[in-house]
Design a protein that fits this description.
This protein has one domain (14-111, 160-378). Helix 6 packs antiparallel against helix 9 (148-159). It is an all-alpha fold. It has helices spanning 3-13, 20-40, 56-59, 67-70, 73-93, 98-110, 113-129, 134-145, 148-159, 161-171, 173-192, 202-218, 227-245, 268-283, 285-291, 295-305, 308-328, 341-365, 381-401, 414-427, 431-437, and strands spanning 41-45, 51-55. The two termini are 33 Å apart.
């Protein structure tokens, strides 16, 4: 049976009460991130013959406006809030333990990480032993694995679902207002009073606020009547005011050399964008759900959701592979300066190469999205928390400092690679857990 036929079969079995638009937004948000990454990374060969890691947003300042469309991680948190709220409510009705629920959520997100993490650990080791420049190896590994930062944050937000959901049920919109006010306070301290370290608290406040909107969506509080369009208009106005009257950058992702980033850590501007995107998405929900009544379109969404983490985790590996191949072929295609007419005309060719390289990776590694059955036994909360902390710390360090080491014989920061593996074993899955059980 072909992959399309399998997806078609699953699509036809979907229960009628399933909100297909949730799956559509999940797939759309990840694809937008992938396209954005492929577009914004703009390497080229300079006059000296060296490969320069150009960044489109820094080269073409006007392109920073495009991030309002391509920075759609807020949609993923919105969808996550909807899905986590529905799932957790069902878990409580069935009287099942929190540990079983959260362990399954962790596995679904992290199981696909192991292949790409171990692949790059092996590649880094081989490259180091072959005598490649460690800076080059480090740059390639860090670029390919940057996407894992998002999972470290999303896992912590998901872990707080019972508390966040209870707050929504008790305080409603007040629970969201409190998070918005907290994000405002953090930005005032960070930007107004130069208390830099406090900005990292907005990883919790901003993303929890967007995640909380998912509960409002699930309860029908956000998608009622004209409310989504009013939400869009209000928060888009706030966003425009922030980037024109206050020192918030236009770009919703980091720009090399910029004094302030809206994403690392998140700011009130990114929260406003997320709220505006939520309004737009839910304003289009009725039309979107009608569109998804078409079995062909719905099958495509089902197919994409079955490989969504694989696409997200491997798309920059495909990018690096194409870049290395072009360099080995004498720099073919890398002589066009980013932003020129020649460069733009070449984008379809480069994108076709990225897709052609990504497809076999999907064919090989998508099966890891299915995971394995967990025993469902309650875990001590300390074990669950420790596993979560180790996984998230390992993923954060992978993105922040790379798994490649400038020192040591192996050239690999083995402790960074080990953290997610050990954390997953504590939760009851992953390669280390299988080894311990054997």
């Amino acid at each position: 049976m072909s992959i399309w036929a399998k997806a078609r079969s699953l699509a036809e079995k979907a229960p009628p009460e399933r909100n297909r638009y949730v799956d559509f937004l999940r797939a759309f948000s990840i694809l937008a991130v992938v396209i954005g990454h492929w577009l914004v990374a703009a390497p080229y060969i300079d006059a000296s013959g060296e490969v320069v890691g150009g960044h489109l947003l820094g080269i073409l300042p006007w392109s920073q406006w495009l991030t309002w469309g391509f920075q759609v991680m807020p949609l993923f948190f919105l969808v996550g809030g909807f899905s986590n709220g529905v799932s957790w409510a069902a878990q409580k009705r069935d009287g099942k333990p929190y540990s079983a629920w959260f362990a399954s959520r962790i596995q679904r997100l992290i199981n696909p990480v192991f292949p790409v993490l171990l692949f790059w650990a092996a590649l880094t080791f081989v490259g180091t032993q072959a005598g490649l420049d460690r800076d080059v190896v480090n740059m390639a590994a860090q670029l390919a694995l940057i996407p894992v930062w998002f999972l470290a944050v999303y896992l912590f937000i998901t872990a707080l679902t019972p508390i966040a959901h209870a707050a929504w049920q008790r305080f409603g919109w007040g629970s969201i207002a409190a998070l918005v006010l907290a994000a405002v306070a953090v930005d005032i301290a960070r930007i107004g009073y130069a208390v830099a370290f406090i900005g990292w608290a907005n990883f919790a406040f901003v993303w929890l606020a967007v995640h909380q909107l998912g509960f409002a969506w699930g309860n029908g509080e956000l998608n009622r009547g004209n409310r989504p369009w009013l939400f869009l208009a209000t928060w888009l106005s706030v966003l425009i005011a922030l980037v024109t009257a206050l020192p918030y950058p236009i770009a919703m992702i980091g720009v090399p050399g910029a004094d302030l980033s809206n994403s690392m850590p998140p700011t009130l501007a990114l929260l406003s964008l997320g709220f505006a995107q939520a309004g737009l998405a839910l304003g289009l929900e009725k039309a979107g759900r009608r569109m998804l009544d078409n079995i062909q379109i719905w099958t495509g969404v089902v197919l994409m959701n079955g490989m969504i983490m694989t696409v997200y985790l491997w798309h920059l590996t495909a990018f690096v592979a194409v870049l290395v191949a072009a360099w080995l072929l004498g720099g073919i295609g890398l002589d066009a300066y980013p932003g020129t007419g020649e460069w733009w005309l070449a984008r379809p060719v480069w994108f076709a190469l990225y897709i052609a390289t990504l497809l076999p990776l999907i064919a090989i590694f998508a099966r890891y999205e299915r995971g394995s059955a967990l025993d469902g036994k309650p875990l001590p909360h300390w074990q669950l928390v420790l596993g979560l902390v180790l996984i998230s710390l390992g993923l954060a360090m992978t993105a922040a400092i790379s798994i490649a080491s400038p020192e040591g014989v192996s050239g690999v920061r083995l402790w960074v690679v080990a953290l997610p593996l050990v954390g997953a074993a504590l939760v009851g899955f992953g390669p280390v857990a299988k080894w311990l059980r054997s």
